[in-house]
Amino acid sequence: MTVTVDKLNAMIAGTELESHDVKTILLMTAREPSQAPIFNHASMAHNNHFFFQGIAPNGTPMPDELRRELEASFSSIESLRLEFIVTASAMFGPGFVWLVKAGPGDYRLLPTYLAGSPYPGAHWRMQSTDMNTVGSDGSARTYLRNQGLGARRRVGDLPPGGIELEPLLCLNTWEHAWLLDWGMGVDGKGGKAAYVDAWWKLIDWEKVHQRSGVLRPEFMSETSP
């Protein structure tokens, strides 16, 4: 991860991106093909940091308020655990699996591949021009350059049909995170599924709870609903 951050810092040195945090950088560059290397390094740095922030040496207990909300979305905590295992195991290639909150009491799992970002604002580039009608006189190149520059003014916009969501927990499924210690897995032992099962025991549920915004009784006033 240190190498990723060092490379990112080198790429943005002396630019307007230098003063921003990694989340802002990835959102500012996600829609510009010419800045794909910066996006990839920023998104990888963000995702890995999120992954490490979500674990603790021995894990932490799941607060009751969070448990009730997760059970409402996944029927049970065991179902959520199994869904993490199945989703990660089924991914054809490296990436991340996210527990996200899409609204009050609405929790979902979201897989992203490679350096993909869970934030909807990073998922599209607005393209109002039909590229089939753009000639070969250089206008296509001009259009794409202008479109890319304009993307910075739309940071945070949602793609068509996109919804707001908040990432709460991240599982790294890149091979370097599990293959060396867990192997490919034979006869149901080892492999990615065993890695996810071990990761589950280390989750910092208190951190997830804080990110979820679920109110705890001790923080609620007498007039709170």
From TrEMBL:
Report the InterPro entries cross-referenced here: Mn/Fe_SOD_C (IPR019832), Mn/Fe_SOD_N_sf (IPR036324), SOD_C_sf (IPR036314)
Coiled-coil positions are none
Q: Which Pfam families match?
A: Sod_Fe_C
Family annotation (Gene3D superfamilies): Iron/manganese superoxide dismutase, C-terminal domain
Q: Which positions make up the signal peptide?
A: none
| SUPFAM superfamilies given in the database record | Fe,Mn superoxide dismutase (SOD), C-terminal domain, Fe,Mn superoxide dismutase (SOD), N-terminal domain
The UniProt record lists the Manganese/iron superoxide dismutase C-terminal domain at: 166-211
What Gene Ontology molecular function terms does this protein carry?
Answer: metal ion binding; superoxide dismutase activity
What role is this protein assigned? Component of the mitochondrial ribosome (mitoribosome), a dedicated translation machinery responsible for the synthesis of mitochondrial genome-encoded proteins, including at least some of the essential transmembrane subunits of the mitochondrial respiratory chain. The mitoribosomes are attached to the mitochondrial inner membrane and translation products are cotranslationally integrated into the membrane.
Entries under PANTHER family matching the protein: 37S RIBOSOMAL PROTEIN S26, MITOCHONDRIAL, SMALL RIBOSOMAL SUBUNIT PROTEIN MS42
Query: What protein name applies here?
Result: Manganese/iron superoxide dismutase C-terminal domain-containing protein
The organism encoding this protein is Hypocrea virens (strain Gv29-8 / FGSC 10586)
